């Protein structure tokens, strides 16, 4: 039908499937290697004591293996996420890897730039909450024709100014949803 229908710009990056494809293969392989290495460390290398209980040893190995493997996956995710947000990749990878105990990752998630999506009309990079493309005026999301605040596609009146949204000359692709 329309561009809006074939490519829901605002949802395409929010799906779980899409998030999973953000984890590169190298980090999955590395995470498995890290997990196996921790099992080897706890059961093969570290000295066994008689008084130590086997379930405790199993649990400890499993816990640290999972923790570090998860962190490797997280670093893999960030390595892709940092690029699609047009942030300095090398700097952020350094921060995430070097800062201890996952603090680097926390800092990253606090400071990361909003996600950019290409304008379906002209391809300009837009923040995800953009209502209009600043380059070509393509309407990305429904907005009130009077106060220009964002509105829900199902709204009849603007929740900011009470304007009757039916009076607006909405683009055809947005009208499909409201009818
Ligand atoms: Zn545009
Ligand atoms: Zn309004």
TrEMBL record:
TM helices/strands, residue ranges: 20-42, 62-79, 91-111
InterPro entries from the UniProt entry: DZR (IPR025874)
Domain DZANK-type, chain residue ranges per copy: 119-162
Keywords (A to Z) from UniProt: Membrane, Transmembrane, Transmembrane helix
Protein name per UniProt: DZANK-type domain-containing protein
Native source species: Edaphobacter acidisoli
């Amino acid at each position: 039908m329309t561009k809006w229908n074939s490519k829901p710009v605002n949802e395409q990056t929010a799906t779980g499937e899409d998030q999973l494809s953000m984890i590169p293969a190298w980090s999955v392989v590395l995470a498995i290697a890290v997990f196996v290495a921790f099992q080897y460390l706890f059961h093969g290398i570290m000295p066994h004591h008689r008084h130590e209980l086997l379930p405790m040893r199993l649990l400890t190995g499993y816990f640290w293996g999972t923790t570090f493997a998860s962190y490797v996956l997280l670093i893999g995710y960030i390595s892709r996420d940092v690029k699609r947000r047009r942030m300095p990749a090398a700097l952020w990878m350094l921060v995430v890897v070097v800062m201890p105990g996952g603090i680097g990752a926390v800092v990253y998630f606090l400071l990361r730039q909003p996600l950019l999506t290409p304008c379906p009309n002209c391809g300009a990079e837009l923040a995800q909450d953009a209502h209009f493309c600043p380059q070509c005026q393509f309407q990305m999301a429904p907005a009130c024709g009077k106060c220009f605040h964002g509105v829900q596609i199902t709204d009849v009146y603007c929740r900011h100014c009470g304007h009757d949204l039916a009076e607006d000359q909405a683009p055809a692709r947005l009208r499909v949803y409201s009818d």
